[in-house]
Structures are given as structure tokens and as C-alpha cells.
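task queued by scheduler; priority normal; single chain, no ligands, no partner chains; default sampling; output format set to C-alpha cells
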Amino acid sequence: MKRSVSVVVPSYDDRDLLAAHLPAVLAELERRAAGDELIVVDDGAGGLVEWAAEHAPGARVVERAENGGFAEAVASGVRAARCELVFLMNPDVRPRAGFLEPLVAALADPDTAAAAPYVLLGGERASEESLSRLAWKRGFPLLELADHAFEAGDAAPPLPAAFALGGASLWRRADLVGEGALDPLFVPFYFEDVDRSWRAWRAGRRVVVCPSSVVEHHHRGTIGRAVPRSIVRAAIEKNRLLFTWKHVDDAARMREHLDGLRARLFAAAAREDRESIIWLCLALQELDAALAARNELPPPVAGFDELRRASDAGLAPLR
């Protein structure tokens, strides 16, 4: 018997993207005939109930009164989900036929927390989101694309990955609600999925990428269109620091981080690089929250570097 899936799509005024990509989702759910459902979260823009009735019949719309950011939109959709498994999908993602079966099969293993598809940037080449590894450079964590020898759609076994892209990944509903939910520390966006995946690795579970499951990422989503690039960069760098302060529990690595942070701050001051200083100030405003989140984490099953090795696909050396 097939396991049913709730597909949750957070959206803020993304009707053109929804019109382009939801038909592929609905066609796949109809083909599977497994009792799946499609939930679109209207994150404060309004009007999607009427739009969906005309353009995406069969989709269920969850309306939010105001825009609360990625994590809140996802949480609203997950709470409304009826299925045990939840596929998170951004509006600018178009799935290819058969994308769900390999992911569902991967989650048959209780030690697998999340399964992500192979991501084709623009539908043509592998993006950096396909098979991630967590590198460490000059005192800071850095997400990289691991080397690999397979092509999209290959019947290769699932491979470990540092994180499952929040805009295209399958989870158990129970791992996305309550204490397992996306952490509001990372509001408004970016690094929520990295943090959620890393908490799984800390708990002795794994995150995988399934090469035989393929989606296309067309990078025209809400954030890139509605938010200035400088603010997007500030959110990324702020949340990279918050992730570091929450998760790096190795004393030597933390000393490296503090030395790197000091060097970066001095260099920014010398260059009159106000943006880098602003990133740090934004993160420092959330330092207490980051430390509180750190203190609430259960002890990890292994140290930070050991977990990095476990989450690496093993196809490129750690740095």
C-alpha cells in the first residue's frame, strides 16, 4: 500500500509560479492515486482561495492574515496536513514525474529523517542545493556541493547530505511540528532547513538525497523578487552566525570561529565595510536566543567534525 503525502507550498503573491508548477504536482498526485493532497499556504497576500478554485482545483488553501516568513508559512501548512509524510516545496520548484516514490521509499527507514530530490537549476544543470556538504573555512561553516559521478535520474542509492533543501524535501509530519519544528531563531528566512537537518544528524538520524527523484529549481521565488539583494545577503550571513553559535560545540572549532570573527571584523572596519558590521550586529541582537536554543539541544551523538564526516557523501575531502 502506498504511503500518502501532503505537499505543502508556502506562497506570497506567487501566482505566476504556482500556475507554472502546480499542474505537474497535481498530475503526479493523480497518477499516484495514494490519497495525497496539495496544500498552498497564502502567506498574507490574499486571494489564493479564489485563484486556486479556478487554476488549481484540488488544491487546498490555508490563509494567513499576515506574512510571517518562511518558517511560519510552512508551519501553517504542516499543521493543516492530513498525511504522515509532508513534502515541502517552494513555488519556483517544478517536480518531474515519479519524484515522490524514491523519497517515500527512503523514509521507510526510521533512521532517515528527511529525503531530498536531486535539484536541477533551471532544469538544466545540478545546482549547489543537490548534494550538500558542510565545510569549515577560516572559522566559519560553509555549504558546498559534493563531487559526484551520477546524473539526475540515475538509480543510485540515497546519499548522505548535510541538509535537505526546505524548498524541496520530504519529512515526517511529526518532525516538523512541536519541538521538531523549524526554529523561529532564523526568521525571516534561510538556514531554517540547515538547522532542522543538523538537529537530525545530532540525534543520530540521517538526511539523504535521492538521485532518482528529480525536481527543477527555477530561482524566481518570492524572496528574490520581493526582497532587495542586500537584505537577502544580510539574512544569510546573520543566520550563518546564529547556526554556528547554536551548533558548534567543539572548543577548538569555536576558538577558530572567534578568531575568524575577530579578523573579519577588523578587516571590515579597515575597509569601512558597513554591511559586514551590520550582519554581525543583527546576529548579536539574537545571541541570547541562539544560546538558549543551544542549551535546549540534547547532547549530540558525536562531535561537530564527526557529524560533518557522517553527513558528507564521502566523495570529496573535508577541509
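post-processing summary
- The chain has two domains: 5-225, 227-297.
- Residues 227-297 form one domain.
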